[in-house]
Write a structure and sequence with these properties.
- The complex is a heterodimer of chains A (330) and B (745).
- Chain A is of the alpha+beta class and 330 residues long.
- Among the domains of chain A are: 48 residues, Uridine Diphospho-n-acetylenolpyruvylglucosamine Reductase, domain 2, CATH 3.30.43; 101 residues, CO dehydrogenase flavoprotein, C-terminal domain (Enolase-like, domain 1, 2-Layer Sandwich).
- Chain A contains 12 helices and 12 strands.
- In chain A, the strands form 3 sheets. A 5-stranded antiparallel sheet of chain A has the order 4-5-8-6-7.
- In chain B, helix 10 packs parallel to helix 18, helix 13 packs parallel to helix 14 and helix 17 crosses helix 18.
- In chain B, helix 9 links the parallel strand 16 and strand 17.
- Chain B is an alpha+beta fold and 745 residues long.
- Chain B has 3 domains: 151 residues, Aldehyde Oxidoreductase, domain 4 (2-Layer Sandwich), CATH 3.30.365; 195 residues, Aldehyde oxidase/xanthine dehydrogenase, a/b hammerhead (Aldehyde Oxidoreductase, domain 3), CATH 3.90.1170.50; 350 residues, Aldehyde oxidase/xanthine dehydrogenase, molybdopterin binding domain (Aldehyde Oxidoreductase, domain 4, 2-Layer Sandwich).
- Chain B contains 19 helices and 31 strands.
- The chains are: A alpha+beta (330), B alpha+beta (745).
- Chains A and B meet through helix 8 and helix 12 of A and helix 3 and helix 19 of B.
- Chain B: It comes from Dyadobacter beijingensis.
- Chain B: This is Acylaldehyde oxidase.
- Chain A: It comes from Dyadobacter beijingensis.
């Protein structure tokens, strides 16, 4: 690990100024990902700005939104009454992530910014476009069992890694905004526009500008509190990243689906919202047949490598399973 | 008070005698020895799999803060026990253990190429990241299947006619083709790595230039002492190896590995005590692994279920420089009564580091294949898999034509089946579902050969009536000290709290390393005879004091006192006996070893496992929901720790079956799963309650305590039982481990 300078701001304004003054700096909160990255030599900031003392832990309800401070711990959010009552899908997804110990350290803002878990990204001896732009993607043509099957339709991907978060899959399915502080004040980004697909700049995971700081997320109230399910398919029962994850949320009435949300994890460079499926579900009575039809519909656009072809079937199956549970049919 | 003797073992078990110091952090592990002047070494490892080092750029590393030395093959002081490197340098020939910092060649990815010594570990790590190495790369061969044509009879076997790894045939080698019902299949076990909680670590201290003390993680202080004495050309007694606490080891500590030698070299070169701790990712290339193995099994039986032929072929990987041989196909010769059996074993050398023994080495690998094949044939016969095994029960050892010293596998099957409720198993797959999950039952047999090595123990009675028992054995996790305390307490009729068992130090009486399930059979016997000898001396002294205790009478020991008989209430305390004779202590030292019985009986531990799995029909996720494991290992010394050992073996077997897989990217010859995010082992949520049962009948022929090894059979067969349960649940036969969702989708 490269030696670094440690700074501890007291206010958001101070933090943002520090970041502007130290272009090589990184914010640190729970450190559950950043410390690994520093130990493995993937990130070597000369300055760490410890934001743990900023007043960004609050979870509150304002107007029609649940606002969660960026420093709220994953474990606190998952069991907060506002979240379990108004955004149970989010709570479910949080509890599917990492382990109890990590959730006790990890923050909401950090969860948004965690890097991919692609093993080539983590090994500095291997080429990786995300870690070392232009060096090549080792996963393409390598061991790509956990890698992406959905890509930006218009561009050849320079990186086939997937986003690792569970929480972000749920937030993608819901209507979420990200509140960001920067040198020029506060701005808000819709969650769907926060993460990037793999482009020619795979080193960038988000549309956050240098020095900007996530201060909160805001999740819109919804009618999905009864019919929702977060299904995470993984190699072991806990503490493993998703092979495929499905966040399914339905608004049902009179035996019909009136509104549907489906987002996927483990299949793309960012959590993948399934817009077409949502349209196809609307106005229909839930059935395994319907879910199978809509699940397989968009899989036609999936592209697999040597080791992850199974994900095409698995994604469709997981979607059927998640929708069935959400709809309450067996 | 009830008797605490080995033949009455169901008595209240002892809790771990070192449990308190372990959970409170008072136990000192290898990396925790605070030696004055300690400095830190960190290894820099190769990023290519084959070639040679062209040059180092050390400029940045040398000037990094805190750096005391950078050691490479260019400046390393020669290890006196090694021959001088050839000039010009030559690649080590096959059969040479890897020598660290010896020549410019790269034999495997992850090989140590340089070592930073610095004042703190963090500074050493930082400097290590600044070392630049340029290589002359050569094409490497790491892909098993692509190189399978190069598999050959191991050189060790070619040279030794009596090697147990020789090709074997009994009966007719062509019998399989004539069998009425046949199956033939290939089974693959991927590389699985040693990843105990405590990574390997060493603190090396030189005194006066010719005396060495190492605080080291290993599984045998005596063998480590011998190997280090040889490498550094020191008299054996000038080397002390101190390893009283080990944070888990399953075979990775049997050999002295390059990092251990490197730390000793570093301490010599910088004239300071040196600590070296392997990083988690370095564990993948530093301490061996269960080798990638491909097996082909052909099984044939009559329609009545009588086995007619078994052909079992196995090919395991090894390094280019060294052979590692395993019992992969050997259990097949012994486990079932079958007139025609052929086994063949081959090795495939690749540009990788040398594999090593890993819990149930060879047997766990071989029994996955054989017990899967047995399940396949049982299904082909439409016969219950347990009934099929009973039909082919070996009443004596079919390989050596000897009677078993004892075998209660039939009782294991019966007990396990009853506890598991095996009778509820459905023959047809996919027949049972529960809460939307497919449910399947599977079982497998387990065996492991009996190993007993000459062992010494010393028992010393002190003036205060306490007893210290010593032997240079180890505790890599099973609770050795607890079991030995129990044996001593039983023989001496004492409260276990007044007995202290010392292990893990090379100055103690000779004992084998902890491997091959040999500790209880070997060291347990030595402790037993040493304590018997001490008891004899004590009774002789007591006899001089009182007629009641004279030889030939009914004198017994109980509650730390000598009594004239079982009924006698007027005892003489051990302390008073010493006091009367003006003795500060009374000592007995004994050796225990096998005798002629080894040629008269075939000795094995036996067991079986019953497993229930639930498989998600849509996602292919497999969860083990119930396990019953049953073992016949003779007398159980201490039920509580034995049970833990059995549970640990099952957990390891579940990992082997469902998760563990070191995956290599062969373009680089480098593992891509070199951390715990990539290399999955079971977590608590993967493990159901595991029921453990023992037959617990002493095997009177094996040793004075009637007890055989338990460590290995706890894992042998588990992976097969899981795979068989997955077949029963899904109808899918997975022959390549691990059974991950992608294989079931």
């Amino acid at each position: 690990m490269r030696p670094f300078q440690y700074l501890r701001p007291k206010t958001v304004g101070e933090a943002v100024t520090m970041a502007a003054d130290h272009p090589d700096a990184q914010y640190i909160a729970g450190g559950t990902n950043l410390i690994d990255l520093m130990k493995r030599g993937i990130t070597s900031p000369s300055t760490l700005i410890d934001i743990n003392h900023l007043p960004l832990k609050k979870i509150e309800h304002r107007y029609d939104r649940t606002r969660i401070g960026a420093l709220a711990l994953n474990s606190d959010v998952a069991q907060h009454k506002l979240v379990t009552r108004r955004q149970p899908l989010l709570a479910e997804a949080l509890l599917a992530g990492a382990s109890g110990q990590i959730r006790n350290m990890a923050t909401v803002g950090g969860n948004l910014l965690q890097r991919t878990r692609c093993s080539y990204f983590y090994d500095v001896a291997m080429p990786c476009n995300k870690r070392n732009p232009g060096s090549g993607c080792s996963a393409e043509g390598g061991i790509n069992r956990t890698h992406a099957i959905f890509f930006n339709a218009n561009e050849k991907p320079s990186c086939i890694a997937v986003h690792a978060s569970d929480m972000c899959v749920a937030l993608t399915a819901l209507d979420t905004d990200v509140v960001i502080a920067g040198p020029n004040g506060e701005r808000t980004l819709p969650f769907k526009d926060f993460h990037r697909l793999s482009t020619q700049q795979p080193e960038l995971d988000t549309y956050l500008a240098p020095g900007e700081l996530v201060t909160a997320i805001e999740v819109q109230d919804n009618a999905f509190t009864e019919h929702h399910h977060y299904l995470k398919v993984r190699d072991r029962a806990s503490y493993a990243f998703a092979l495929v994850a499905v966040a399914a949320a339905l608004q049902m009435d009179g035996g019909k689906i009136w509104e549907a949300r489906v987002a996927l994890g483990g299949v793309a460079h960012k959590p993948w919202r399934y817009w077409a499926v949502e349209l196809m579900l609307r106005g229909n009575a839930p059935s395994e047949k319907l879910f199978r039809e809509v699940a397989e519909h968009e899989m036609r656009s999936a592209k697999a490598g040597e080791y992850n072809a199974y994900k095409i079937n698995l994604t469709a199956n997981a979607m059927v399973a998640a929708l069935k549970t959400a709809a309450g049919i067996s | 008070m009830k008797k605490q003797t080995p033949d009455n073992p169901a008595d209240n078990s002892l809790s771990r005698v070192d449990g308190h110091v372990k959970v409170t952090g008072a136990a000192t592990y290898s990396a925790e020895y605070a030696v004055p002047g300690l400095v830190h070494a960190v290894l820099v490892t190769s990023t290519i799999a084959r070639g040679s080092i062209k040059a180092f750029d050390l400029q940045e590393a040398e000037t990094a803060p805190g750096v005391l030395a950078i050691i490479t093959h260019l400046n390393a002081q020669p290890v006196p026990g090694w021959p001088a490197p050839k000039q010009p340098a030559e690649r080590a020939p096959a059969g040479t253990a890897f020598r660290v910092f010896y020549d410019p060649f790269i034999y495997f990815d992850g090989q140590p190429v340089a070592m930073i010594v610095a004042d703190t570990r963090e500074r050493a790590l930082h400097a290590a990241s600044l070392v630049r190495v340029t290589y002359q790369q050569e094409p490497h061969q790491t892909h098993f299947e692509k190189n399978i044509g190069k598999a050959a009879i191991p050189l060790n076997v070619q040279r030794s006619k009596n090697s147990p790894f020789q090709d074997y045939t009994r009966g007719n080698a062509g019998a399989w083709a004539q069998a009425e019902i046949r199956i033939e299949a290939e089974y693959t076990i991927p590389t699985q790595h040693h990843q105990p909680l405590e990574p390997h670590a060493i603190v090396a201290v030189w005194e006066a230039g010719d005396k060495l003390t190492v605080y080291d993680k290993n599984q045998g202080v005596k063998s480590a002492q011998g190997q280090l004495a040889q490498a550094f050309k020191l008299p054996r007694e000038h080397v002390q190896v101190v390893s009283p606490y080990i944070g888990g080891a399953f075979g990775s500590g049997i050999r002295v590995w390059p990092h251990t030698v490197a730390a000793v070299m570093a301490a010599k070169q910088v004239r300071r005590p040196v600590k070296l701790v392997l990083g988690r990712e370095q564990m993948f290339t530093s301490v061996g692994y269960r080798p990638y193995t491909v097996q082909k099994i052909s099984l044939g039986a009559g329609k009545n279920g009588q086995l007619q032929a078994i052909v079992h072929e196995g090919v395991g990987q090894t390094s280019m420089y060294e052979e590692h041989l395993e019992r992969t196909v050997q259990g097949t010769r012994t486990i079932y009564a079958c007139p025609n059996v052929t086994t063949r074993y081959r090795l495939l050398p690749l540009d990788v580091n040398t594999p090593t023994w890993m819990r149930g080495p060879g047997d766990a690998t071989g029994m996955f294949a054989l017990e899967s094949a047995m399940d396949e044939l049982a299904f082909a016969l439409q016969m219950d898999p347990l009934e099929f095994r009973l039909k082919n029960y070996a009443e004596s050892d079919p390989e050596r034509n000897l009677p078993w010293s004892a075998k209660a596998l039939r009782e294991c099957y019966a007990l396990g089946a009853e506890k598991f409720r095996w009778e509820n198993r459905q023959m047809q797959p996919r027949a049972v579902s529960r809460n939307g999950m497919l449910v399947g039952y599977g079982m497998a047999s387990s065996l492991y050969g009996f190993h007993r090595h000459p062992s010494k123990a010393r028992a010393v009675l002190r003036a205060d009536g306490s007893v210290t028992v010593q032997s240079a054995t180890m505790d890599i996790g099973p609770g050795t000290g607890t079991a030995m305390t129990r044996i001593a307490a039983g023989v001496l009729g004492m409260n276990a709290k007044k007995i202290r068992f010392e292990l893990g130090h090379s100055a103690l009486p000779d004992a084998p390393g902890q491997n091959g399930s040999s500790t209880i059979p070997s060291v347990g016997s030595a402790v037993y005879v040493a304590c018997e000898s001490l008891k004899g001396k004590l009774l002789a002294l007591a006899g001089e004091m009182d007629e009641r205790f004279k030889a030939g009478r009914q004198a017994v020991v109980r509650d730390g006192q000598v009594f004239g008989s079982d009924e006698d209430k007027d005892g003489l305390s051990f302390a008073d006996i010493l006091k009367h004779h003006h003795l500060n202590e009374l000592e007995a030292a004994e050796e225990s070893k096998s005798g002629a019985e080894r040629d008269q009986y075939s000795m094995y531990s036996f067991g079986c496992h019953f497993v229930e799995v639930q498989v998600h029909p849509l996602t292919g996720e497999v969860r083990v929901t119930r396990v019953v494991t049953c073992a016949d290992v003779g007398a159980i010394i201490n039920h509580k720790t034995a049970r833990s050992q059995s549970i640990g073996g099952v957990v390891g077997g579940i990992g082997m079956a469902l998760m563990e897989h070191s995956e290599m990217d062969h373009r680089f010859g480098r593992y891509v799963t070199s951390d715990f995010a990539g290399y999955h082992i079971p977590v608590h949520a993967d493990i159901p309650a595991i029921e453990v049962y023992y037959i617990d009948k002493p095997d009177v022929h094996v040793n004075p305590i009637g007890s055989k090894g338990l460590g290995e059979i706890a894992i042998v067969g588990v992976a097969g039982a899981v795979a068989n349960a997955v077949f029963n649940a899904t109808g899918r036969r997975i022959r390549t481990l691990p059974i991950t969702p992608d294989k079931l989708i």
